[in-house]
From TrEMBL, chains A, B:
Family annotation (NCBIfam families): asp_kin_monofn (TIGR00656), asp_kinases (TIGR00657), PRK06635.1-2 (NF005154), PRK06635.1-4 (NF005155), PRK06635.1-5 (NF005156)
Pathway where it operates: Amino-acid biosynthesis; L-methionine biosynthesis via de novo pathway; L-homoserine from L-aspartate: step 1/3; Amino-acid biosynthesis; L-lysine biosynthesis via DAP pathway; (S)-tetrahydrodipicolinate from L-aspartate: step 1/4; Amino-acid biosynthesis; L-threonine biosynthesis; L-threonine from L-aspartate: step 1/5
Organism in which the protein naturally occurs: Pseudalkalibacillus berkeleyi
This protein's name: Aspartokinase
Pfam families tied to this protein: AA_kinase, ACT_9
Main function: Catalyzes the phosphorylation of the beta-carboxyl group of aspartic acid with ATP to yield 4-phospho-L-aspartate, which is involved in the branched biosynthetic pathway leading to the biosynthesis of amino acids threonine, isoleucine and methionine.
Entry-linked PANTHER family: ASPARTATE KINASE (PTHR21499), ASPARTOKINASE 2 (PTHR21499:SF68)
Reactions catalysed, as given in the entry: L-aspartate + ATP = 4-phospho-L-aspartate + ADP
Length: 410, 410
């Protein structure tokens, strides 16, 4: 019998009506003769409300107690969904993380799943029940409740699918799938039928927020077929799987972007072996995430290094650099705000060295100035002025034939 | 080192401010050099809100899933209290029912505690932590979450106190203790310094809603000293303990009462051995709780039986009796609404046969007609017209010297 794991996010279970709707979706699958395990997040904004209460009580609530607090959110939504299924005549049982055998590291707030003892889930499936599992939570060796951090419910679903050897893990969300680029920005954006794990990983890391990178990585490692689809619309979504079934000649699969980027340049650093390491260790020790990094040696005894950061942490970044000026021995700093990152992603570009060149060509033709570049095997990222971001996306979307008008079988 | 178990009800932890206040109370005790275990209920009306959601989803939510749902309420309040204590600089840890080792029957919604494996609580106490435990919940043999039903948090506190051999179990509530009668009704009502388990049991069963009878019974069986006191006022409350320390000559300890009583009389039943049993088995099989029962044989082949019920179930009671008229073989039924029950309670009356006589005498002098009587070893209950209830309580309160003016050392 086919086994499907379905995951519904907070918006999908955000109200009594939404929960009833999810129950209907679950029943549809069950009536096709499939075994169904459902993973749910907390209802709508309920996690935020719980965290607000914690912040009202304590300046820095302990992570252990925060886990105790927020893990109640999924317990509420899962029991309500079980009741909804029962009310519609379907046997169902809800399980907390610890009841479902989800073992995690002994870390609070951001634990990783170590193992799943799926005996209890299997026992309920064997009696024909629909099993509902709390996302986002597990239990440590010391029987402490631990939460998985951001994207945790997706990861729970994938881990359960891997442990049960499920045929598919369906991630229900408020969009109908993964698009070539954000359809709110480019009207011709096209929903992809399928995408590889690596491509999805790059897109997820580049800010296409449909799936958390962690869950995609997990799915890749355990070869779990994912499907991203809408909890409201009935149309099929986007499969994420190994690329066997895909067309090799589709060089670029999608375009990701994010704005609110600032470029910081540190001028006149000593041109020594340890300079790069010293600078980025200092930033990392102070919890500053940098994205693209460029180094220019200028032929003298000094070097200039540029990097991009989220504009929200610009002031803090400048403060940290000033504080460590004597250790780092630089001459001065400059920064440029109001930038955006535009990236093309596609596993086809590994064997097509001309893809990056084509990207720069397209942007040049569109009169769009590239301020920084970064490449990986399956993506090329550029930093451009925010005012030119949408124009850049549109040019690239058309040039790489991603438009809905040019249907490509994938 | 002395060990104190404290229990705070839903009103006491009903808001962030209230939780901060509870933290202060807990710290006061801890600073006296005592080990403290705190049992908490869910915040204010949160349990009712969860049940409302369940009822919105399902006509008859499964008890198993209801337990999953409502047990989150205590988990929220306990983790917030732990955070409040930590914020004030005191090490603290919260434990769910299953983490605290509270083993219950395999029943949902109304489980009894079977055993407490207190190793985890003891481990935390040994490191100097204040331990907070979710009231009202435990875990069954099959690792299912089970709730304890009404008064469950009181019972949790008493059971933990028994299992840890605590020096005292303090029940914090919105009144300052147990009174000779309801101070809202009789202005001279006096707070009792101490009362015996049996007296408290009778008062609790008679509607003095400070403590659930189940928790008093549990305390009696395990000889746990209880203290009922206010979570706001600092004054000491009422101790509930074995009666060694009490004055034997205080015949009557308090007066309990409830209105909304109806007397039902079934006329012309066959005067047979099985009549009583048949009638009350029929009522009990239909979940009708009767209180006082009186049988009059009239010398013929028939007998009349009267009983009292809560007025809210009068119509249902009449329906059930009509439905079984042919089996029960009675002639007709009559009922009298608008009645109240007034009871005197005191373990001193066991050795004072004249107490009941004095009660009837006092009521007769006050021109109050007694419609039904029921006695036990330590209480006498009378049914009177609701219009005369307060006057009855006042006469008795004065006659048995319960007034605050007449200070009695107990």
């Amino acid at each position: 019998m086919a086994l499907i794991v379905q995951k519904y996010g907070g918006t999908s279970v955000g109200s009594i009506e939404r929960i009833q709707n999810v129950a209907e979706r679950v029943i549809e699958t069950y009536k096709q003769g499939k075994e169904v395990v459902v993973v749910v997040s907390a209802m709508g904004k309920s996690t935020d409300q719980l965290i607000q209460m914690a912040n009202d009580i304590s300046e820095q609530p302990s992570k252990r107690e925060l886990d105790m607090l927020v893990s109640t959110g999924e317990q509420v939504s899962m029991s309500l969904l079980a009741m909804a299924l029962q009310q519609k005549g379907y046997e169902s049982v809800s399980l907390t993380g610890w009841q479902a055998g989800i073992k995690t590291e002994s870390v609070h707030g951001n634990a990783r799943i170590l193992d799943i003892d799926s005996r209890r889930i299997n026992g309920h499936l064997a009696t024909g029940k629909i099993v509902i599992v709390a996302g986002f939570q597990g239990i440590t060796e010391n029987e402490e409740i631990a939460t998985l951090g951001r994207g945790g419910s997706d990861t729970t679903a994938v881990a359960i699918a891997a442990s049960l050897n499920a045929d598919k893990c369906e991630i229900y969300t408020d969009v109908t799938g993964v698009f070539t680029t954000d359809p709110r920005v480019v009207k011709d954006a096209r929903k992809l039928e399928a995408i590889s794990y690596d491509e999805m990983l790059e897109l997820a890391n580049l800010g296409a927020g449909v799936l958390h990178p962690r869950s995609v990585e997990f799915a890749k490692n355990y070869n779990v077929t994912l499907e991203v689809r809408s909890s409201i619309e009935k149309e099929s979504g986007t499969r994420i799987e190994e690329e066997v079934a895909m067309e090799g000649n589709l060089m670029v699969r999608g375009i990701a972007f994010e704005d609110n980027v600032t470029k910081v340049t540190v001028y006149g650093l000593p041109d020594e072996m340890s300079t790069l390491s010293k600078l980025f260790t200092t930033l990392s020790d102070n919890q500053i995430n940098v994205d693209i990094i460029i180094q220019n040696t200028n032929g003298n005894q000094t070097t200039d290094i540029s990097f991009s950061v989220d504009s929200d942490i610009l002031q803090y970044t400048m403060d940290v650099l000033s504080k460590f000026k004597s250790e780092l021995r630089y001459e001065h700093i400059a920064y440029e705000e109001g930038l955006s990152k535009v990236s093309i992603v596609g596993s086809g570009m590994i064997s097509n060295p001309g893809v990056a060149a084509k990207m720069f060509d397209v942007l040049a033709e569109g009169q769009i100035k590239v301020k920084m570049v970064s490449t990986s095997e399956i993506k090329v990222s550029t930093i451009v002025d925010s005012g030119e971001m949408i124009s850049a996306i549109e040019c690239l979307h058309e040039a790489f034939e991603l438009d809905a008008r040019q249907a490509v079988t994938v």
